[in-house]
Specification:
Layout: H1 6-16, E1 23-31, H2 50-66, E2 72-81, E3 84-94, E4 98-105, E5 111-118, E6 122-126, E7 137-143, E8 146-152, H3 157-169, H4 179-196
Parallel strand pairs: 1-4
Antiparallel strand pairs: 1-5, 2-3, 3-4, 5-6, 6-7, 7-8
């Protein structure tokens, strides 16, 4: 749903228009302190763990914003307890010029961010994944020593996602994100899980 937020749509359009130059680095992070032992996130048989929960956002964002699939995947750290991962980091290589770092955790402070570093511009999106209907959002843009802040009005990304789906069902528009997009995110998650187990 985060991709339907106007702020994230604006970020994607900036990258597609080449405003950042050639993409060099992407950093995506999603962490929060998790303390609910009865919650499904705490059970491996229900797909528990930080990677499958928060990490799926990070991987999806790296794939979406790069517009490509990783050519190499390297877990660099994983801390597990009771058969679920509590913190995982990984490096995703997208060809020879673009690297993405993903970071997800159930034992770190509330933190969400997407950072893009291009050959010309760096762009940061705080509160990247769960900006809600009452939250104003922003993009922070750095061009050398010049800083710009673009602000966006509150929006409900869930409602926007449902509206898009409804328009697709009614034949008013084409589906933005086909099922293969979700499967490709799952493939990266599976590779990471297989390497860290």
């Amino acid at each position: 749903m985060y991709r339907f937020h106007p702020r994230m749509q604006a970020l994607k359009q900036m990258l597609a228009a080449g405003e950042a130059g050639e993409l060099r680095f992407i950093h995506t992070a999603f962490s929060f302190p998790f303390n609910a032992p009865g919650n499904y996130r705490a059970f491996p048989q229900f797909g528990g763990g930080a990677l499958l929960d928060a990490g799926s956002y990070c991987i999806n964002a790296a794939r979406w914003l790069s517009g490509s699939e990783p050519t190499a995947i390297h877990p660099v750290f994983s801390y597990s307890h009771n058969a679920i991962d509590l913190s995982t980091s990984a490096i995703l290589q997208f060809g020879s010029q673009l690297t993405a770092h993903i970071q997800c955790s159930f034992i770190a402070a509330e933190h969400q961010v997407i950072e893009i570093v291009g050959s010309e511009v760096a762009i940061t999106a705080p509160l990247a994944f769960t900006a809600w209907r009452d939250d104003s959002t922003e993009l922070l843009i750095q061009r050398g020593a010049t800083f710009e802040r673009r602000e966006f009005a509150p929006a409900d990304p869930y409602a926007l996602m449902v509206e898009h789906f409804t328009d697709c069902v009614l034949g008013k528009t084409m589906l933005l994100y086909p099922p293969e997009d979700g499967r490709n995110t799952l493939r990266v998650l599976d590779v990471l899980r297989a390497q860290k187990l």
